[in-house]
Amino acid sequence: MDIKGKVVIVTGASSGIGEATAREFAKEGARLVLAARRIDRLEELAKEIRAMASGAEALVVQADLSQLADIQSMVEQTLKQFGRIDVLVNNAGFGRLDWLEKLDPLKDIEAQLKVNVHGVIQTTRQVLPVMIKQRSGSIINMCSMAGLIGTPTYTIYSASKHAVHGFSEALRREVQPWGISVSMLYPGGVTTEFGQHAGINRKTKATTPKFLLLTADQVGREVVKLVTRPRAMRIIPWLWSLSAYLNKLWPAFVDYTTITRFTIPEREVELGIKS
Ligand SMILES: NC(=O)c1ccc[n+]([C@@H]2O[C@H](COP(=O)([O-])OP(=O)(O)OC[C@H]3O[C@@H](n4cnc5c(N)ncnc54)[C@H](OP(=O)(O)O)[C@@H]3O)[C@@H](O)[C@H]2O)c1
Questions:
Q1: At residue 115, what are phi and psi to the nearest 5 degrees?
Q2: Selecting from 3.40.50.720, 2.60.120.560, 3.30.870.10, 3.40.50.880, what CATH number does the domain 7-240 have?
Q3: Rounded to two decimals, what is the model's pTM?
Q4: Active site residue 154
C-alpha cells in the first residue's frame, strides 16, 4: 500500500508510540486522524503534521476509547472529513502493574480491560463495515510481549494483550477475503510515558536491559512497514522471539527462572523471608 493520501486513524496519538506512529505516517503524506483524551497534545502534533512538506493532513478527535459513544463519534468525524478509512492503528492502551490483590477492581482492572480490550474491539467493529465496503484496509493492533508471555505483576495487562492476540488472529481469518489485512505488533520495552502511568514499585529494580529497549520512533516505523508489507505478526526486537518460543516449548523452565529471580525476591518481605 502506498501511504500518500491514505486515511489513517491512530488511537493514543497524544504520546509515545501513537504520537511517533502518526509522525511516521505524516512523513509519507497520509491524512491522519489523531485520537486520544488529551486534546492539547493532539492539537500540537496536528500543527506539526500540517506544516510538513509531505502534504500530510491531520484531524484531531478527542476520544475516550473506553466509551462506545466516543468511538462512534471518532469514526463519524473521520468519514465526514475524509470519506474513507484505509488504516486503523489500535494503539491506545495502558498498564497498571502490581500484584493482582493490590490492583483496584475498577480503576486498575476494569479500566485497563475497557481501553486495552473493549476499545480495540469496538473501534475495529465500527471501522470494519467501511473497509469491507471499500474492499481494502489495514488494521494494526498494538500488542506487547506481555501478549505472548505472562509475567508477574502484569496479570491484567497480560490478559488484555493476550485478548488482543486472540481477537486479531480470529479477525485476520474473517476479513482477509475482503482485502483487509490484520497485523499484530509485539514490542518489548519502549521508552514512553507508559511507565509513569503503570505504578511500578519494584524492590529488585528489575527492568528491561538497555540494549533491548526501543524508542517510540522505531516502533512507529515498524507500524508503517506492517501497512506497506502486511504480516500477521511481528516481534521487536527479534531477540524477544527466542523467549516467546522458550515460553511455549518449555514453560516449566520459564516458571522456575521467573519465580526464583523475580517473584520471590519481590515477594520476600510479604512472604516473611526477609524483614
Ligand atoms: N511502552 C512500552 O514498553 C510498550 C510495550 C509494548 C506495547 N506497548 C503498548 O503501546 C501502546 C502505547 O503505549 P505507549 O508506550 O506509547 O504509552 P503512552 O506514552 O502512555 O501512550 C498511551 C496512549 O494511550 C492513550 N490512552 C490511554 N487511555 C486512553 C483512553 N481511555 N482513551 C483514549 N486514549 C487513551 C493515551 O492518551 P490520553 O491519555 O491522552 O488519552 C496515550 O496517547 C499501548 O497499547 C501499550 O500497551 C507499550
A1: -80, -50
A2: 3.40.50.720
A3: 0.97
A4: no
Q: What is the pLDDT of residues 157-213, one digit of tens each?
A: 999 999 999 999 999 999 999 999 999 999 999 999 999 999 887 777 778 888 889
First and final C-alpha spacing in the chain: 59
Domain definitions of the chain by residue range: 7-240
**C-alpha of residue 242 to centroid of ligand 1, in Å:** 26
CA-CA distance, 37 to 126, in Å (whole number)?
19
Rounded distance between C-alpha atoms, residue 86 and residue 129, angstroms: 12
Smallest CA-to-CA distance from 21 within 101, 113, 124, 90 is with 90
Q: How far is CA 206 from CA 69, 209, 229, 258, in A?
A: 40, 9, 35, 11
Task: Report the residue among 107, 140, 194, 219 best suited for mutation to probe ligand 1: largest number of ligand atoms under 8 A from its CB.
Answer: 194
> CB atoms < 10 A from the CB of 166, how many?
10
